[in-house]
Amino acid sequence: MADPRITPAKLCQALKQRSVLAMPTSSKSVRFVVHYQISDGDIQYALTCIEEAVEEILACDAKSERCSTNGTS
């Protein structure tokens, strides 16, 4: 994670709300595991969710508010 506002724990929590499971592995990295039966559409969904989760975290930080796990403040 290059941006200190996005921690692995915050990202994993936001992804879990979108049914994408990931695991923090350090203070700056997240582990994703993909099963061989996952489709290209599933990967695209996960990538979209990552993008949305990052935007949500940064938006909450910009508002200087503590956002809940469902993306609202």
TrEMBL record:
Naturally occurring in which organism (per UniProt): Aegilops tauschii subsp. strangulata (Goatgrass)
> Could you name the domain of life of the organism this protein comes from?
Eukaryota
PANTHER family recorded for this chain? AROMATIC AMINO ACID BETA-ELIMINATING LYASE_THREONINE ALDOLASE DOMAIN-CONTAINING PROTEIN, L-THREONINE ALDOLASE-RELATED
Which GO terms fall under molecular function for this chain's record? L-allo-threonine aldolase activity
Q: Provide one Gene Ontology cellular component.
A: cytosol
Picking any one GO biological process from the record gives: glycine biosynthetic process
InterPro entries recorded for this chain? PyrdxlP-dep_Trfase (IPR015424), PyrdxlP-dep_Trfase_small (IPR015422)
Protein name (record): Aromatic amino acid beta-eliminating lyase/threonine aldolase domain-containing protein
